[in-house]
Amino acid sequence: MFIHVLSMLYLLITGIGTYEFKNDFVVLMSNLDKTLVAYNFVLKTAFFVLKRNDLKILINEIKNSGDRVSEGRKRLMISHIIVITALSTSIVSAFCLLSTVRGEMTVEAWMPFNPLKNKKNLLISMQLLAVTFIPCMYRAFAIQGIVCTIIMYFCDQLDDLQDRMRNLVYSVENEITMKKEFKDIIKKHVRLIGLVALTYKQDIKFSSYRKMFSSRYSKQFTSIFKEFFLVQNLAVTIELCLSALMVSVAGLEQRILLASFLAYLFMALLNAYIFCYLGDTLIIKSQGIADAAFDSSWTSWPAKLQKDLLIVIRAAQKPLKLSAGGISVMCIQTYSQ
């Protein structure tokens, strides 16, 4: 709750500061660009908090599923958030230090005193801005880490399903073991991708799927994060527009101002690329179940198992996707547009 108050305080004082410079176009655009980052963080956090109960249910189900995550994927989950946090902190710190040296405000904000009167006032104002913004930024990166970690978890489990599918070998001697493994694969596929109501005529034999629609995992995941990705896409779009406008308006003598725009644009595009890359990977991995089924030794299977495998292949042709508010899909194609 305290971090929420700090975030709103930052938006309030920077909003007043932006309004005070409404007649200076360059300063106005510069302030809008820098405060856009905070609005992006706050809005994504707000939607995340609103869906926290659904997210808690999803995470508990994943924890209780017994799924294992590879060590390489764990390292990627950790290194991703460390790199993004370190890079963002470095950029923000560099521009704050540069503004302090030049005797300027990093972001124009209302203060109960004149921040440009002397160095002491300037340092105090910088500290106040840092105290209100830094917790907001780190909280946003923590949320991003949770989102990306769940996506990586899905990708890792889909990789596991593909490996297990390719390794299925049928023979008269291992018929029971093979059918049990196939049953486990399909149950996990149901849980991850979107097939519901699998029934069995006997303890080992499979019947057909009775219904196909979004699974509990994929439905919950899409429902929880669709607003999150919508805000992400809108923020990047606005950032691109502001940067293009400032590049065309600002002169070469305002190199530091242009550098700040390009730095924030770089971070926005980097974060957008991460989400789109993970979304694209998720699509490829979920469709890869069909390829893995084709790669298995299905030609030697009984006709009944081949029919069940065909249903799995048809189901895998509808991949798991990350939706940005139902408007667009998070993938490399969306990023390139």
UniProtKB/TrEMBL annotation:
List the transmembrane segments: 78-102, 122-155, 228-250, 256-278
Chief location category:
membrane
Which UniProt keyword terms apply here? Cell membrane, Membrane, Olfaction, Receptor, Sensory transduction, Transducer, Transmembrane, Transmembrane helix
Q: What is the lineage of its organism?
A: Eukaryota, Metazoa, Ecdysozoa, Arthropoda, Hexapoda
Look up and give the organism this protein is from: Leptidea sinapis
GO cellular component terms, semicolon-separated: plasma membrane
Q: Does the keyword Transmembrane apply?
A: yes
Q: A single GO molecular function, which one?
A: olfactory receptor activity
Topology term for the membrane: Multi-pass membrane protein
Q: Name one GO biological process term.
A: signal transduction
The answer to whether keyword Lipid biosynthesis applies is no
InterPro entries associated with the record:
7tm6_olfct_rcpt (IPR004117)
Cellular location(s): Cell membrane
Q: What is the protein name given in its UniProt record?
A: Odorant receptor
